[in-house]
């Protein structure tokens, strides 16, 4: 019998209800102090029928925290906010992993108190982020991290993972994608170091593996996943041989028996801005990684089902479809029409375009029913 998107799956320490996962998506609703609110808890609870929710990227450290309104997990207040989220998702029977990021070079100086952003090498990210006045502002050249700063960052990830699990989250996903700090170490366009953290693929993978080992020591391998985006060019990142770089890293992760590897790689013909036309690496990662693989990137229901049927993945993560369809699992299962999201409210703050997308089949308002 063919495995379907709606079959249960064991992932690390957990048994999940289905293979339709919610991809991590920054929604910028946690205010200037990065503390998730009741509204954030409602947003995730509305989507709790996903087999697994992977949260928006969450900062492990103030110097790697530069997305206005994105949450953190390095203060007690942030941790308390996340407890609201975890409790709300669990009350609806869901599972939730927190995506952990250090933004590395993609942070504006003004967001981190006038300090320079940190990166493996002093190579500025391309593009811009809004400053505190909402004006798109170009990135400056980051500071090359010392070995002591690298060790501090490793510790920040481990402490954040501990805080996440203590707040009730089921596990964490390391954001090793989209040019952020771990990815910037992995790819040679952003890592031109000459020490043990740069040069060879083994050396470029060292930071990732030190973070993985520190996090696993803190919370256990069955609560840890990793996300790669081997061929995208977000913020101008690149690698001269993504297949060699990422298959090496995937083989090292296999040995660690993590909960999963999550690969973001839209199909070449998907028209996604995340695809830059490089040959896909996901098939090679499938072969190199001995464990549960999640695929993501501009997939629809039938693409996701094909990936599972053909053994290209065990589970599929959907991003944008979950924004406007909190009940995406039920809609896919019953072949109901999907709602279209409004991109203007992806990062706008406020509850509009956040918690106001209805389910296809409205839940009865039990409090208003009299018999
Ligand atoms: C609003 C928005 C925010 C995103 N934030 C994150 C993020 O915090 N971390 C991450 O790894 N990817 C992030 N992504 C990428 C998504 O996880 C996903 O890879 C991408 O949307 C492609 O999948 P989809 O076609 O199913 O949406 C974001 C995407 C969107 C649209």
From TrEMBL:
Cofactor: FMN
Family recorded in the similarity comment: Belongs to the NADH:flavin oxidoreductase/NADH oxidase family.
Tagged with keyword Metal-binding: no
InterPro entries: Aldolase_TIM (IPR013785), OxRdtase_FMN_N (IPR001155), Oye-like (IPR045247)
A single GO molecular function term of this UniProt record: oxidoreductase activity, acting on the CH-CH group of donors, NAD or NADP as acceptor
Domain NADH:flavin oxidoreductase/NADH oxidase N-terminal: 5-337
Any Pfam family hit: Oxidored_FMN
CC per GO annotation: cytosol
UniProt xrefs under SUPFAM superfamilies: FMN-linked oxidoreductases
Keyword line: Oxidoreductase
Record's protein name: Alkene reductase
Gene3D superfamilies hit by this protein: Aldolase class I
């Amino acid at each position: 019998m063919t495995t379907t998107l709606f079959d249960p799956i064991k992932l690390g320490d957990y048994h999940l209800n289905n293979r339709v996962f919610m991809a991590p998506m920054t929604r910028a609703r946690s205010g200037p102090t990065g503390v998730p609110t009741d509204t954030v808890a409602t947003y995730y609870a509305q989507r709790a029928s996903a087999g697994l929710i992977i949260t928006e990227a969450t900062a492990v450290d103030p110097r790697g925290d530069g997305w206005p309104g994105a949450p953190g997990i390095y203060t007690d207040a942030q941790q308390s906010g996340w407890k609201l989220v975890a409790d709300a998702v669990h009350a609806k029977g869901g599972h939730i992993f927190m995506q952990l990021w250090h933004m590395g070079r993609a942070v504006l100086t003004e967001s981190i108190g006038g300090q320079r952003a940190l990166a493996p090498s002093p190579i500025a990210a391309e593009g811009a982020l809004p400053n505190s006045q909402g004006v798109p502002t170009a990135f400056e050249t980051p500071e090359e991290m010392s070995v002591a700063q690298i060790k501090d960052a490793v510790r920040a990830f481990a402490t954040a993972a501990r805080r996440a699990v203590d707040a009730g989250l089921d596990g964490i996903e390391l954001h090793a994608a989209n040019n952020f700090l771990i990815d910037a170490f992995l790819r040679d366009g952003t890592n031109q170091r000459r020490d043990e953290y740069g040069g060879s693929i083994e050396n470029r993978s060292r930071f990732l593996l030190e973070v993985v080992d520190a996090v696993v020591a803190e919370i256990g391998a069955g609560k840890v996943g990793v996300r790669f985006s081997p061929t995208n060019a977000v913020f101008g990142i690149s690698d001269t041989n993504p297949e060699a770089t990422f298959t090496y890293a995937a083989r090292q992760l296999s040995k660690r028996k993590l909960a999963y590897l999550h690969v973001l790689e839209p199909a070449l013909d998907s028209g996604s801005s995340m695809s830059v036309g490089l040959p896909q690496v996901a098939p090679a990662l499938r072969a190199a990684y001995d464990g549960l693989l999640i695929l993501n990137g501009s997939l629809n229901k039938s693409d996701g089902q094909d990936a599972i049927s053909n053994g290209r993945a065990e589970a599929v993560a959907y991003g944008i479809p979950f924004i406007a369809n909190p009940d995406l699992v039920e809609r896919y299962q019953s072949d109901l029409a999907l709602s279209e999201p409004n991109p203007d409210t992806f990062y706008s703050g406020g509850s509009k375009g956040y918690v106001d997308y209805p389910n296809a089949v409205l839940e009865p308002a039990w409090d208003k029913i009299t018999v």
